[in-house]
What we know:
three-stranded mixed beta sheet, disordered N terminus
Amino acid sequence: xxxxxxxxxxxxxxxxxxxxxxxxxxxxxxxxxxxxxxxxxxxxxxxxxxxxxxxxxxxxxxxxxxxxxxxxxxxxxxxxxxxxxxxxxxxxxxxxxxxxxxxxxxxxxxxxxxxxxxxxxxxxxxxxxxxxxxxxxxxxxxxxxxxxxxxxxxxxxxxxxxxxxxxxxxxxxxxxxxxxxxxxxxxxxxxxxxxxxxxxxxxxxxxxxxxxxxxxxxxxxxxxxxxxxxxxxxxxxxxxxxxxxxxxxxxxxxxxxxxxxxxxxxxxxxxxxxxxxxxxxxxxxxxxxxxxxxxxxxxxxxxxxxxxxxxxxxxxxxxxxxxxxxxxxxxxxxxxxxxxxxxxxxxxxxxxxxxxxxxxxxxxxxxxxxxxxxxxxxxxxxxxxxxxxxxxxxxxxxxxxxxxxxxxxxxxxxxxxxxxxxxxxxxxxxxxxxxxxxxxxxxxxxxxxxxxxxxxxxxxxxxxxxxxxxxxxxxxxxxxxxxxxxxxxxxxxxxxxxxxxxxxxxxxxxxxxxxxxxxxxxxxxxxxxxxxxxxxxxxxxxxxxxxxxxxxxxxxxxxxxxxxxxxxxxxxxxxxxxxxxxxxxxxxxxxxxxxxxxxxxxxxxxxxxxxxxxxxxxxxxxxxxxxxxxxxxxxxxxxxxxxxxxxxxx
Length: 650
């Protein structure tokens, strides 16, 4: 072994003894703890202010960038919920119609609880409060309790506010208060003056040293009338410091909890995500907006698909209803009674109005008419949708431009392109419908239809009232111009939306579909049943002057000819005579030389090139014609009647 390994250990007495550090007094520890708490509270205040300001700026930027698309998403989701509810209700009603028909005596009447109904208003609105997280959840509040806090001595609000006061401000406030209370001039004896001088000197020393504890203790004693306010023991100072530490610990816990609450808010989480993406060189707001726009597109496509499904569901309902209503149940006495109609009893489907001209305007309808008049300049798209819904129902069978959701979208977008550039798109408009419009179902005679409609049938009477105002009428003319079938004109070659009119009425009634650009007649036809579709809207077209009628008197009978407004303005006497020849003399084989026909207005014969003015016009035959106006009239009547009744010639 080496000598170093066997060297004897030094005696213990030779080791250097290091004295332990002097133990700090409780008063000193309390002062240090107080200083640490004040520093922590200042830091927490600064952090909270900084975080709050950053979140406020982020929230404003988020609102500016994403509030509009976010609201669009919410509205689109509400629309989808509405469509889903309609689908569920339509399916339930179809299943009910497909059930076997019971005899009238045993068929139960629908109980209110069994009827398909719209969700109550409170339920429809409840979703807005669902799944909202409370950004100020106090679940972990106890985690911040200070180990040194007193158990059952919670500080008052006044104490907390006093401790949150700025230190320099608190010192100055205490010094001024004590200076007023201890001023030597208040002394009533020399001995009292000497004591106040000494006490004030101590106050000044404490103020200069920033000793808030001494000032507060002196103020407390003076306020309590203690004459020994100048004698402060260490125990008194320690008790006062511990009270302040307790108050400040509570304040610090509150600030820490506020910080955690702020960090746990949805805004804070979004802010942190935005900072993370910014560090990666990405723009959170721009990316989120793009995601919302993509989501909106998907929601709109979903809504369109559901609307198409509801149109098919309406056709299924029509078929099931007609089949059920054609089934006659045998009663106990052998009589046949019509089965109960669940469709008319269901709140899902409202009754359509077949005779609008007989409907009286209710107070609700008059209010809507005034609202439409007020809205037409600010929100023309709402008035346009209302007019489209009105014309779709007034037509009985909707015209081609309003017979499906896709047609609605196409024609609305055309209106928007023409003179409503600021209006929302069709998909957006469906999510912002005014309260008098809805996506729903109605029954018209034997047919159930789905689409945009006025919420109540009584509101339909509002539209004719509103159309009496010129700016609403102008919007009505725009709508009537876009609801016809689309074809390529055979004369001008343009792709146009055809306009309907009666080429003539009075003796005969010949319908026509015209090109609105060149007035070429694309199609002429007779109707052998009640007018529906675009033909049923002719009275509105005449009132709005999208179609103008010119009358011609023949032997006391008025024969009407209808024109497009531009065509009527350029109408000459020769053209009106030619229209009579083309629609009456030639088709019905009346041999009459057109040269023997004259038009007379106000007792004067109109020259062929003269423009037709306002006023009554008579058709007069020259003596050379060899017949009279009355004979021509009777001949035309007999041959027109023969066209409808071929056996009349026998």
